[in-house]
Design brief:
The chain is mainly α. It has one domain. The chain is built from eleven helices and no strands. It is globular and about 55 Å long. Keywords: Cell membrane, Membrane, Transmembrane, Transmembrane helix, Transport. It is a multi-pass membrane protein. It is found in: Cell membrane.
Length: about 260
């Protein structure tokens, strides 16, 4: 696909904002996937291209946390493998779904993610006793990995919430290990979708540059404003982009609703 300069600038701008949001609250894919679809990118290609650009930001965060000694690679090796395998299966499933059905499903998933970000409780900063063992951690990482390969937005928040609520980790430690698990699932989905030929490399790499820059800005903002300002912004923008997708008469969900109302 070919894009004009105005569309490229728009997508890079969205990727920059998504990078800022990802660094502070997670969920940047709530913006980039519908933005790609809004400029005419088919659903599977939009998810695949988003995986390319988001993988760079996640890898950058993993390197930063690893340098500070915040990631226990030995303990999380098996969960990372689980996330990788689950994501491969999710991405494989994604490629076998009718694109028209997927175009209608994505706005529904976006609304569900918005609800989650609205009602999700704040995580604790302190480490606590884990309620479950390594087997449960591997199982949960695999299940969330499947979701990441199939769709993606909100994966980081799901993982962080699980690590805090079920495995007693403090917020900083949970965030660091979430990035590691998320990197495994991102790479798995990206490889699977590259093999399928769905990645738009040029726009994906340009968005990756913008996403990395946004991540750096977000890291600094996180120390000042945190998620209390960014999360409401994320919800508003995601809802606006959802409305944009549903405004297209060609969207299968819109067509179904219009038909049912007729």
């Amino acid at each position: 696909m070919e894009f004009g300069v105005d569309v490229i600038v728009l997508l890079m701008g969205v990727a920059f904002i998504a990078g800022v949001i990802d660094a502070i609250a997670g969920g940047g894919g709530l913006l980039t996937i519908p933005a790609l679809m809004a400029v005419g990118v088919p659903p599977v290609q939009a998810i695949a291209t988003n995986k390319l650009q988001s993988s760079f930001g996640t890898a950058s965060a993993v390197v930063a946390f690893a340098r500070k000694g915040r990631i226990d690679f030995r303990r999380f090796a098996r969960p990372a493998i689980g996330a990788f395998v689950g994501s491969v299966v999710g991405a494989w499933t994604l490629q076998r779904i009718d694109p028209a059905f997927l175009a209608g499903l994505i706005p529904v998933l976006l609304v569900l993610m918005v609800i989650y970000f609205t009602v999700a409780p704040k995580a604790s900063e302190e480490d606590r006793h884990s309620r479950f063992g390594t087997g449960a951690l591997v199982g949960i990482a695999t299940a969330i990995g499947f979701y990441d390969g199939f769709f993606g937005p909100g994966t980081g928040s799901f993982l962080t919430t699980a690590l805090v609520a079920l495995f007693g980790m403090g917020l900083v430690s949970a965030t660091a290990h979430t990035k590691f698990l998320n990197l495994a699932s991102n790479i798995a989905a990206l490889i699977t979708l590259v093999i399928g030929g769905y990645v738009l490399w040029a726009i994906g790499l340009l968005m990756a540059v913008a996403s990395i820059a946004g991540g750096q800005v977000g890291a600094h903002l996180a120390l000042r404003v945190g998620g209390r300002v960014i999360r409401p912004l994320l919800v508003v923008m995601a809802l606006a982009l959802t409305v944009k997708l549903l405004a297209d008469p060609g969207n299968s969900l819109t067509a179904w609703v219009m038909g049912a109302a007729a």
